[in-house]
Task: inverse folding
Protein backbone atom coordinates (compact mmCIF):
# COMPACT_ATOMS: atom_id res chain seq x y z
CA UNK A 1 0.00 0.00 0.00
CA UNK A 2 3.01 2.36 0.33
CA UNK A 3 4.24 4.29 -2.75
CA UNK A 4 7.75 3.23 -3.68
CA UNK A 5 8.60 6.70 -4.90
CA UNK A 6 7.86 9.80 -2.87
CA UNK A 7 9.00 12.94 -4.73
CA UNK A 8 7.36 14.96 -1.96
CA UNK A 9 10.23 14.04 0.40
CA UNK A 10 12.46 16.61 -1.28
CA UNK A 11 9.77 19.29 -1.05
CA UNK A 12 9.03 19.04 2.66
CA UNK A 13 11.07 21.93 4.05
CA UNK A 14 12.42 25.17 2.54
CA UNK A 15 15.95 23.88 3.18
CA UNK A 16 15.31 20.69 1.20
CA UNK A 17 13.77 22.66 -1.63
CA UNK A 18 16.68 25.07 -1.66
CA UNK A 19 19.16 22.21 -1.73
CA UNK A 20 17.67 20.70 -4.89
CA UNK A 21 16.63 23.84 -6.82
CA UNK A 22 17.97 23.49 -10.37
CA UNK A 23 17.50 27.01 -11.65
CA UNK A 24 19.17 30.09 -10.22
CA UNK A 25 18.14 33.70 -10.50
CA UNK A 26 20.84 36.21 -9.67
CA UNK A 27 21.01 39.99 -10.11
CA UNK A 28 23.65 39.62 -12.82
CA UNK A 29 21.17 37.69 -14.96
CA UNK A 30 18.87 40.70 -15.17
CA UNK A 31 19.06 43.62 -17.59
CA UNK A 32 16.98 46.75 -17.02
CA UNK A 33 15.38 48.39 -20.09
CA UNK A 34 15.20 52.17 -19.57
CA UNK A 35 13.58 55.06 -21.43
CA UNK A 36 15.14 58.50 -21.72
CA UNK A 37 12.90 61.24 -23.09
CA UNK A 38 13.75 64.55 -24.69
CA UNK A 39 12.04 67.75 -23.59
CA UNK A 40 10.47 66.64 -20.32
CA UNK A 41 11.11 68.52 -17.09
CA UNK A 42 10.44 65.62 -14.71
CA UNK A 43 10.25 61.82 -14.99
CA UNK A 44 6.92 60.73 -16.42
CA UNK A 45 5.27 57.47 -15.39
CA UNK A 46 4.03 55.36 -18.28
CA UNK A 47 0.33 54.89 -17.54
CA UNK A 48 0.10 51.39 -19.02
CA UNK A 49 3.28 50.34 -17.16
CA UNK A 50 2.84 51.55 -13.58
CA UNK A 51 6.26 51.86 -11.95
CA UNK A 52 8.12 52.38 -15.25
CA UNK A 53 9.21 55.89 -16.22
CA UNK A 54 10.32 57.97 -19.12
CA UNK A 55 13.40 59.53 -17.62
CA UNK A 56 15.06 62.91 -17.83
CA UNK A 57 18.84 62.76 -18.14
CA UNK A 58 19.16 63.38 -14.40
CA UNK A 59 16.64 60.75 -13.35
CA UNK A 60 18.19 58.33 -15.86
CA UNK A 61 21.57 58.70 -14.20
CA UNK A 62 20.05 58.22 -10.75
CA UNK A 63 17.92 55.18 -11.66
CA UNK A 64 20.79 53.58 -13.58
CA UNK A 65 23.16 54.05 -10.65
CA UNK A 66 20.59 52.51 -8.32
CA UNK A 67 20.12 49.51 -10.63
CA UNK A 68 23.86 48.96 -10.90
CA UNK A 69 24.22 49.20 -7.11
CA UNK A 70 21.53 46.54 -6.82
CA UNK A 71 23.73 44.36 -9.01
CA UNK A 72 21.91 44.16 -12.35
CA UNK A 73 23.91 42.72 -15.23
CA UNK A 74 23.32 45.64 -17.55
CA UNK A 75 21.09 48.39 -18.89
CA UNK A 76 19.26 48.61 -22.24
CA UNK A 77 18.49 52.17 -23.27
CA UNK A 78 15.66 53.41 -25.49
CA UNK A 79 15.25 57.01 -26.62
CA UNK A 80 12.00 58.96 -26.74
CA UNK A 81 12.41 62.01 -28.98
CA UNK A 82 10.02 64.95 -29.03
CA UNK A 83 7.18 64.28 -31.48
CA UNK A 84 8.22 67.24 -33.64
CA UNK A 85 11.72 65.80 -33.99
CA UNK A 86 10.52 62.62 -35.70
CA UNK A 87 10.77 62.33 -39.47
CA UNK A 88 10.37 59.68 -42.16
CA UNK A 89 14.09 58.75 -42.02
CA UNK A 90 14.37 58.58 -38.23
CA UNK A 91 17.16 61.17 -38.33
CA UNK A 92 17.15 61.63 -34.55
CA UNK A 93 18.57 58.14 -34.17
CA UNK A 94 21.73 59.09 -36.03
CA UNK A 95 22.17 62.64 -34.77
CA UNK A 96 24.88 62.66 -32.07
CA UNK A 97 22.63 65.13 -30.24
CA UNK A 98 19.59 62.87 -30.56
CA UNK A 99 18.20 61.84 -27.19
CA UNK A 100 19.31 58.21 -27.30
CA UNK A 101 22.91 59.11 -28.07
CA UNK A 102 22.89 61.84 -25.44
CA UNK A 103 21.46 59.34 -22.94
CA UNK A 104 24.14 56.78 -23.78
CA UNK A 105 26.86 59.35 -23.16
CA UNK A 106 25.26 60.21 -19.81
CA UNK A 107 25.30 56.53 -18.81
CA UNK A 108 28.85 56.03 -20.03
CA UNK A 109 29.94 59.13 -18.14
CA UNK A 110 28.17 58.04 -14.95
CA UNK A 111 28.96 54.33 -14.97
CA UNK A 112 31.81 53.65 -17.39
CA UNK A 113 32.71 49.98 -17.53
CA UNK A 114 31.11 49.20 -14.15
CA UNK A 115 28.06 47.88 -16.00
CA UNK A 116 27.13 46.82 -19.53
CA UNK A 117 25.50 49.65 -21.47
CA UNK A 118 23.27 48.49 -24.30
CA UNK A 119 21.38 50.51 -26.89
CA UNK A 120 18.28 49.73 -28.91
CA UNK A 121 19.42 49.93 -32.50
CA UNK A 122 16.14 50.49 -34.30
CA UNK A 123 14.41 53.40 -35.99
CA UNK A 124 10.83 53.06 -34.75
CA UNK A 125 11.15 55.47 -31.84
CA UNK A 126 12.47 58.09 -34.28
CA UNK A 127 10.28 57.72 -37.36
CA UNK A 128 7.07 59.71 -37.74
CA UNK A 129 5.36 56.68 -39.32
CA UNK A 130 6.51 54.46 -36.45
CA UNK A 131 8.04 51.67 -38.53
CA UNK A 132 11.40 50.12 -37.72
CA UNK A 133 12.83 51.13 -41.08
CA UNK A 134 12.54 53.64 -43.90
CA UNK A 135 9.76 53.23 -46.44
CA UNK A 136 9.63 52.81 -50.20
CA UNK A 137 7.44 55.29 -52.12
CA UNK A 138 4.73 52.62 -52.00
CA UNK A 139 4.92 52.51 -48.22
CA UNK A 140 6.66 49.16 -47.71
CA UNK A 141 9.56 48.89 -45.26
CA UNK A 142 12.68 49.02 -47.44
CA UNK A 143 15.11 46.43 -46.09
CA UNK A 144 18.36 47.48 -47.73
CA UNK A 145 17.82 51.23 -47.45
CA UNK A 146 17.12 50.64 -43.76
CA UNK A 147 20.45 48.82 -43.34
CA UNK A 148 22.25 51.99 -44.38
CA UNK A 149 20.44 53.89 -41.61
CA UNK A 150 21.15 51.15 -39.05
CA UNK A 151 24.84 51.32 -39.85
CA UNK A 152 24.89 55.07 -39.24
CA UNK A 153 22.87 54.62 -36.05
CA UNK A 154 25.22 51.89 -34.83
CA UNK A 155 28.27 54.07 -35.37
CA UNK A 156 26.65 56.94 -33.45
CA UNK A 157 25.83 54.58 -30.57
CA UNK A 158 29.33 53.11 -30.50
CA UNK A 159 30.69 56.65 -30.51
CA UNK A 160 28.42 57.45 -27.56
CA UNK A 161 29.86 54.64 -25.45
CA UNK A 162 27.51 51.67 -25.84
CA UNK A 163 29.16 48.31 -25.10
CA UNK A 164 26.52 46.24 -26.88
CA UNK A 165 24.14 47.27 -29.65
CA UNK A 166 20.72 45.68 -29.85
CA UNK A 167 19.50 45.60 -33.43
CA UNK A 168 15.78 44.96 -32.98
CA UNK A 169 14.28 45.87 -36.34
CA UNK A 170 14.30 42.38 -37.89
CA UNK A 171 15.75 43.57 -41.20
CA UNK A 172 17.55 40.85 -43.13
CA UNK A 173 21.31 41.24 -42.89
CA UNK A 174 21.25 43.84 -40.10
CA UNK A 175 23.78 42.09 -37.87
CA UNK A 176 26.30 41.60 -40.67
CA UNK A 177 25.92 45.15 -41.96
CA UNK A 178 26.45 46.61 -38.48
CA UNK A 179 29.41 44.29 -37.77
CA UNK A 180 31.16 45.32 -40.96
CA UNK A 181 30.68 49.01 -40.27
CA UNK A 182 31.80 48.78 -36.66
CA UNK A 183 34.94 46.93 -37.63
CA UNK A 184 35.77 49.32 -40.45
CA UNK A 185 35.44 52.25 -38.05
CA UNK A 186 37.70 50.63 -35.45
CA UNK A 187 34.92 49.59 -33.07
CA UNK A 188 36.00 45.97 -33.09
CA UNK A 189 35.24 45.63 -29.36
CA UNK A 190 31.65 46.86 -29.58
CA UNK A 191 29.36 43.84 -29.69
CA UNK A 192 25.81 42.98 -30.66
CA UNK A 193 22.99 41.47 -28.67
CA UNK A 194 20.92 40.54 -31.70
CA UNK A 195 17.16 40.36 -31.43
CA UNK A 196 17.32 37.17 -33.44
CA UNK A 197 13.88 35.66 -32.95
CA UNK A 198 11.49 38.55 -32.53
CA UNK A 199 7.82 37.94 -33.01
CA UNK A 200 5.07 40.33 -34.11
CA UNK A 201 3.33 40.44 -30.76
CA UNK A 202 0.22 42.03 -29.30
CA UNK A 203 2.11 42.15 -26.01
CA UNK A 204 4.21 45.11 -27.21
CA UNK A 205 1.14 47.34 -26.71
CA UNK A 206 2.33 49.26 -23.63
CA UNK A 207 5.79 49.83 -25.16
CA UNK A 208 4.17 51.92 -27.88
CA UNK A 209 2.99 54.31 -25.19
CA UNK A 210 6.37 54.13 -23.50
CA UNK A 211 8.13 55.48 -26.58
CA UNK A 212 5.29 57.61 -27.91
CA UNK A 213 5.12 55.52 -31.07
CA UNK A 214 2.71 56.60 -33.76
CA UNK A 215 2.72 53.31 -35.67
CA UNK A 216 -0.02 52.90 -38.25
CA UNK A 217 -0.60 49.31 -39.32
CA UNK A 218 1.58 46.53 -37.98
CA UNK A 219 5.05 45.00 -38.21
CA UNK A 220 4.08 41.67 -39.73
CA UNK A 221 6.22 42.06 -42.86
CA UNK A 222 9.38 42.05 -40.73
CA UNK A 223 8.65 40.54 -37.31
CA UNK A 224 7.90 36.82 -37.12
CA UNK A 225 4.58 35.01 -37.13
CA UNK A 226 3.65 33.43 -33.79
CA UNK A 227 2.76 30.25 -35.66
CA UNK A 228 6.36 29.48 -36.61
CA UNK A 229 9.31 27.88 -34.85
CA UNK A 230 11.70 26.72 -37.61
CA UNK A 231 11.88 30.31 -38.80
CA UNK A 232 13.32 31.29 -35.43
CA UNK A 233 16.04 28.68 -35.61
CA UNK A 234 16.99 30.02 -39.03
CA UNK A 235 17.02 33.62 -37.79
CA UNK A 236 19.24 32.61 -34.87
CA UNK A 237 21.65 30.74 -37.14
CA UNK A 238 21.84 33.66 -39.57
CA UNK A 239 22.53 36.19 -36.82
CA UNK A 240 25.28 34.04 -35.36
CA UNK A 241 26.79 33.57 -38.83
CA UNK A 242 26.67 37.35 -39.32
CA UNK A 243 28.63 37.90 -36.11
CA UNK A 244 26.10 38.26 -33.28
CA UNK A 245 27.80 38.05 -29.88
CA UNK A 246 24.56 37.14 -28.14
CA UNK A 247 21.09 36.29 -29.44
CA UNK A 248 17.69 37.13 -28.03
CA UNK A 249 14.23 35.65 -28.09
CA UNK A 250 11.35 38.08 -27.67
CA UNK A 251 8.74 38.15 -26.16
CA UNK A 252 9.60 35.66 -23.44
CA UNK A 253 6.64 34.02 -21.76
CA UNK A 254 4.63 33.06 -24.86
CA UNK A 255 7.82 31.82 -26.55
CA UNK A 256 9.51 29.64 -23.94
CA UNK A 257 9.62 26.73 -26.39
CA UNK A 258 11.58 28.88 -28.85
CA UNK A 259 13.85 29.97 -26.04
CA UNK A 260 14.58 26.38 -25.05
CA UNK A 261 15.39 25.36 -28.61
CA UNK A 262 17.58 28.41 -29.10
CA UNK A 263 19.45 27.76 -25.85
CA UNK A 264 20.02 24.14 -26.83
CA UNK A 265 21.68 25.01 -30.13
CA UNK A 266 23.27 28.41 -29.60
CA UNK A 267 27.06 28.62 -29.22
CA UNK A 268 26.65 32.21 -27.92
CA UNK A 269 24.84 33.42 -24.80
CA UNK A 270 21.06 33.65 -25.08
CA UNK A 271 18.87 36.45 -23.76
CA UNK A 272 15.10 36.69 -23.46
CA UNK A 273 13.05 39.88 -23.21
CA UNK A 274 10.14 39.91 -20.82
CA UNK A 275 8.35 42.69 -22.64
CA UNK A 276 6.01 45.51 -21.73
CA UNK A 277 2.77 43.55 -22.02
CA UNK A 278 4.14 40.78 -19.80
CA UNK A 279 5.00 43.41 -17.20
CA UNK A 280 1.61 45.09 -17.51
CA UNK A 281 -0.40 41.85 -17.27
CA UNK A 282 1.19 40.84 -13.99
CA UNK A 283 1.05 44.39 -12.66
CA UNK A 284 -2.64 44.81 -13.52
CA UNK A 285 -3.65 41.45 -12.08
CA UNK A 286 -1.75 42.22 -8.89
CA UNK A 287 -3.31 45.69 -8.62
CA UNK A 288 -6.69 44.00 -8.73
CA UNK A 289 -5.65 41.71 -5.93
CA UNK A 290 -5.95 38.69 -8.22
CA UNK A 291 -2.39 37.42 -7.90
CA UNK A 292 0.52 37.85 -5.50
CA UNK A 293 2.73 40.27 -7.40
CA UNK A 294 6.16 39.46 -6.00
CA UNK A 295 5.62 35.71 -6.24
CA UNK A 296 4.35 36.01 -9.81
CA UNK A 297 7.31 38.16 -10.81
CA UNK A 298 9.82 35.67 -9.39
CA UNK A 299 7.99 32.71 -10.92
CA UNK A 300 7.93 34.37 -14.35
CA UNK A 301 11.65 35.18 -14.23
CA UNK A 302 12.57 31.73 -12.93
CA UNK A 303 10.63 30.07 -15.74
CA UNK A 304 12.40 32.21 -18.34
CA UNK A 305 15.74 31.19 -16.84
CA UNK A 306 14.62 27.54 -16.68
CA UNK A 307 13.73 27.68 -20.39
CA UNK A 308 17.36 28.51 -21.11
CA UNK A 309 17.90 32.26 -20.90
CA UNK A 310 21.35 33.25 -19.68
CA UNK A 311 20.15 36.83 -19.45
CA UNK A 312 16.65 38.23 -18.94
CA UNK A 313 15.63 41.74 -19.89
CA UNK A 314 12.87 42.77 -17.50
CA UNK A 315 11.38 46.02 -16.25
CA UNK A 316 11.62 44.52 -12.76
CA UNK A 317 15.41 44.08 -12.99
CA UNK A 318 16.37 46.74 -10.47
CA UNK A 319 13.67 45.82 -7.95
CA UNK A 320 14.24 42.08 -8.18
CA UNK A 321 18.02 42.50 -7.98
CA UNK A 322 17.36 44.32 -4.73
CA UNK A 323 15.30 41.40 -3.37
CA UNK A 324 17.94 38.87 -4.33
C1 LIG B 1 11.80 48.10 -31.38
C2 LIG B 1 11.47 47.50 -30.06
C3 LIG B 1 10.20 47.22 -29.55
C4 LIG B 1 10.40 46.70 -28.29
C5 LIG B 1 11.76 46.67 -28.06
N1 LIG B 1 12.42 47.16 -29.18
C6 LIG B 1 8.88 47.51 -30.12
C7 LIG B 1 8.36 46.75 -31.26
O1 LIG B 1 9.04 45.93 -31.85
O2 LIG B 1 7.22 47.00 -31.62
C8 LIG B 1 9.32 46.23 -27.38
C9 LIG B 1 9.71 46.08 -25.95
C10 LIG B 1 8.55 45.90 -25.04
O3 LIG B 1 7.40 45.74 -25.48
O4 LIG B 1 8.79 45.91 -23.83
N2 LIG B 1 12.55 49.29 -31.22
Result:
Amino acid sequence: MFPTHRPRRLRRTPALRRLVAETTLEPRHLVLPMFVADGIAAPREISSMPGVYQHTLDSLRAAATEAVSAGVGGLMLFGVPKPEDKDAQGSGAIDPDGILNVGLRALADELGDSTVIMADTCLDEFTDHGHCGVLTPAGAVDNDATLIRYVEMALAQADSGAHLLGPSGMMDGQVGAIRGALDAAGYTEVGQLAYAAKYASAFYGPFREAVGSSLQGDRRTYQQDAANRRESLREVDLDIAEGADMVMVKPAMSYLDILRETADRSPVPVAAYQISGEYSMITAAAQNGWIDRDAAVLESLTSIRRAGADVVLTYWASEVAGWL
User: Anything to note?
Assistant: The CA atoms of residues 94 and 153 lie 5 Å apart.
